Each structure stands twice: as structure tokens, then as C-alpha cells.
Amino acid sequence: MKNNNQISRKLIYSIWSLVLLIGLVGCDSYKKDVHLFPAEEVPENLSAWNLLRLEKGVLFPAERALPYDLNTGLFTDYAHKFRTVWLPKGAFVTYGEEQFNYPVGTILSKTFYYPQESSGVVRRTDDFSADYVEGRFGQALDLNRVRLVETRLLIRRQENWQALPYVWNKEQTEATLEIAGDVKNFQLVGLNGQQENLSYVVPDANQCAGCHAEKFTDKAISPLGPKARHLNKDYPYGSGVENQLLFWQKAGYLRGLPDLKSLPRNANIYDATVSLEDRARAYLDINCGHCHNPTGPADTSGLMLHYGEIDWRKLGLCKPPIAAGTGSGGHLFAIVPGEPENSILNFRVESTAPGAMMPELGRSMVHTEGVELLKQWVSSLPGSCT
């Protein structure tokens, strides 16, 4: 009897030891850091980077991959976006008002997705409140409530940035590298029940570079969103709500941060407490400014829509187009004060016709809220072009 008890105790001890070992191995796997692949050896599967983790229907970032958001983001056919930044251990970002200096090895991720009904249809909405796991808002996406489409990576290499588009499979279990891009077809359902067909275009690597090349002369790509004016806002971290720039500094990710009160801050276009002009300029900055700036691909147009431009003529007020054509819609000036219906800027933002719509890439639908914002802004401008 005594021997049997000893054997039982040993057996139980062995089983518990095995369970503990498995648990420890699982914990080590969970805590394993991001795998930074060299430029010539990028993996086919997103999971190989270990940047975003899937577990029990939840998508969440690696331990040192910080989620972040922008005051106003680029419109992409109503897609929602989950962004993260990761730095190698000991590395840090150096502050710059117009452009941060990101260290070699930085990985920026942006996951595009849509809110999803239990029936499987995807919703057109600007409401993010139901996207995340309860109690983990801003930290972990609930895959029972969202439909993942793609995850784009920007990796800082020694000489330049590398853009990699990964497309999620139907099962929502893996994303695969698609250098040539892809097309996903959806039916978007609005709050009023109205349905719209959407052909969502995943850009190829060259198109990624086309938008991210703010300095058109050297074609070098750079991050567009994670800049001071876009990041200067609060975010709901697991430890509590805090200004993103201060949080990056506290986490050791950012150095050289000036006093917060002195930093630029783009408006949230949905914040009615902010002036109409600030909201309209913020919208133009993030959606158009990466091309329409003094060194961008649209520099020859003379139309400057980037943050900080103060010359109203360059902003388009009573400015005739450099080249006429279908892009002008038969109108004479970029902006006619008080007359959005006669302004080229409004015409191009409202159009979906190739050769006329702006931005040229990243959308196939009309952004109703953005169009209305720009209409109100142009309508509010005094003066005339006669």
C-alpha cells in the first residue's frame, strides 16, 4: 500500500512537472521578442515576424510593440486601422518637428480591417468602440467583431525604408506577403442599412513607395503618419490614458522631446470644438499633403496642401490649374471662396473617376464626411475670384 502511494505521488509530481514545463515553454514563446529579418530574407508569413500575435480570436501586439493612433488618419475606403511601432532593444527615436529620426531596425505596422456583423457583412462606420476586446480598448482586436484585410509593414533598413504588404486569409489565421498587391471584394453596410459594393485594393510595393516618397527627387520613402503633429494626442494604454509622445518618451522610445505645450497638433476632423479651418487643413494635410508639398510628387502643380502652408494662393485660393483637363472638371480655380461647386479641389475629392479623383491611390469610394467638411470650409471663405 505504501509503495502504491509513493508511486502515485511520483506520478502526480511528474505530471505536474510536465504541465509546469509546458507552461514555462508557452510563456517563453509568448515573451519571445520580434524577429527582425534582413531585407533580402523577408518571410512569406506575417506571423514569422512575431510582431502581432493571434490567440483565441484576439489579435494583439508583441510585448514591446506600442500601439498608437493619429489625430486624423488617411481615408482608406472606411477601413479601420490598428497601428504599432517597435524598436530594437536599446534603440530610440530622435524627435524632429517635421520628421522623426527612426533608428535602423524600426518596424511600423498598420493593420487594415472592417467592423463585422455576426452575419459576416462588414460595416461602414467611424465608430471604433466595438472593435476591441472588452476591457482592452486600443490594445487587442476582437476577431469576432472585425474582419482583417491587410497588414502593412515599414521597416527601417540601413539605407532606406522597406514596404511590405501582407494580406490576411479568409480564415483570419495568417497574412501572406503579396508584393504584387491584391483586391478584396466586400459589401459595406451603413448605419441606415444601405449597401455599397467595395473593391478594396491592396497596393503593391511600388505603389506603397509612390505615396511614401515625400521627397520626389530621391524617391526615398518615409513614414507619413507617426509625426509629432499627428501623434500629439491621448491614447488608452493598458496602464491608463496618456499622451502618446510622453508615453514614447517614458518607454525609452523617444528622445529630444520639447515641452508638450510647444508642439504642433493636427485637429481631429470629428471634433466640433475645433475650428472649421483647422479641421479642413488637418484633413488636407494627411490626405493630400504627402504629395502636395514643395518636394513631393505634386510639387509642379503649385498647389501646396501640407501642414504649415500659409500662402493662400498656394493653398488654392483663386489659383488656376497648371494643366487643364478632366482633372479640372471644367472649373477655373482650385478654390473659389464661397463656391465649392465651382472649385477644382472639391470636384476632385468628390470624384471616383480615374484621372480626376484625388487622392489617386488608397480609395475607390467617396468619403462623405470629408467631402462635407471641405464643402463647409470652402463655403465659409470670404471674397471672390472675379
* Overall average pLDDT: 88
Q: Roughly how many Å is the radius of gyration?
A: 24 Å
Strands ordered across the widest β-sheet: 3-4-6-9-10-11
* Chain oligomer state: single chain
**What share of residues is helical?**
10-25%
Helix segment count? 7
Instruction: Give the count of structural domains.
Output: 3
Class by alpha and beta content: alpha+beta
The run of helices and strands is HEEEEEEEEEEEEEHHEEHEHHH
Q: Choose one word for the global shape.
A: globular
List low-pLDDT spans.
1-30
Distance between the termini: 107 Å
Q: Strand percentage, roughly?
A: 15-25%
Number of strands: 16
How would you characterize this protein structure?
The chain is an alpha+beta fold. It has three domains: 1-31; 39-255, no CATH class; 267-380, no CATH class. The protein has seven helices and 16 strands. The chain has helices spanning 2-31, 205-212, 228-231, 244-250, 276-288, 344-350, 368-380; strands at residues 52-55, 58-61, 66-68, 80-86, 93-94, 107-115, 122-123, 141-142, 146-156, 161-168, 175-177, 182-189, 195-202, 234-237, 240-243, 254-255. The strands form five sheets. A six-stranded antiparallel sheet has the order 3-4-6-9-10-11, with helices on one face. Strands 1-2-8 form a three-stranded antiparallel sheet, with no helix packed on it. A three-stranded mixed sheet has the order 7-12-13, with no helix packed on it. A hairpin with a 4-residue loop joins strand 9 and strand 10. Helix 5 packs across helix 7 (368-380). The protein is globular. The termini are far apart.
